[in-house]
Design a protein that fits this description.
This protein is of the alpha/beta class and 204 residues long. It has a single domain, classed as Vaccinia Virus protein VP39 (Rossmann fold, 3-Layer(aba) Sandwich), CATH 3.40.50.150. It is 36% helix and 25% strand. A 6-stranded mixed β-sheet has the order 2-1-5-6-10-9, sandwiched between helices. It has a two-stranded parallel sheet with strand order 3-4. Helix 1 runs parallel beside helix 2. The N and C termini lie far apart (42 Å). 34% of the residues are buried. It binds S-adenosylmethionine (SAM). The site of S-adenosylmethionine (SAM) has 21 residues, from loops.
Amino acid sequence: MNQADGLPYSQACENNKQAILSVLRHGFAQATQVLEIGSGTGQHALYFAEQLPHLTWQPSDQGAYLAPLCLRVSLATHLDNLALPLTIDVMQPWPCESQQFDALFSANTLHIMSKAMVEAMFEGISQHLALGGVCCLYGPFNYQQAYSSASNREFDTWLKTRDPLSGIRDIEWIIQLAARAGMRLMADNEMPANNRLLQFLKEA
Ligand SMILES: C[S@@+](CC[C@H](N)C(=O)[O-])C[C@H]1O[C@@H](n2cnc3c(N)ncnc32)[C@H](O)[C@@H]1O
């Protein structure tokens, strides 16, 4: 909790937002409508909407995250390019129906979701990301089924203790799911604390 406003607070978001922004500035330079999946506290949504005023940021979340996210966004009245959050649980039909976005962002969700949820998320992306759209996914990944650091190994153990269906995903599997959704990996950016920012382009 943030002592000042009582809303949920993520120190990790504060630590990673500038490094992520440095990639999004180029990756989302032509974007006009960004859909974020699993916005969590909304700190990323507020920061990126403020720093990227040429686009509209559409946050979303589900479950217990949603109400405080809506509150944080509704308090940010100075940001007219920040939309009120959508309720998106990737296992349910997405409420944006036939709407297409030209960019998609999600941070620290793929290792929290079960594999079935990750597959559903890519299915949703295939429906809602326009041709030529850019998809940026932030988080830890394994390479050829190996951890990229001791801290990621410990994190994965912790994740699985909390929920056996969670876990750090193999980048090769994510690239496969992306390909099925018509997306090609354009960049695998190194981020602080052994995280990556994967940048995909929707081609077909
Ligand atoms: C660790 S939090 C990350 C939040 C935020 N993106 C961040 O970087 O701090 C994991 C997020 O995944 C979301 N999530 C988990 N299961 C989901 C599902 N089935 N559909 C959509 N989002 C989901 C959670 O609601 C939560 O917002």
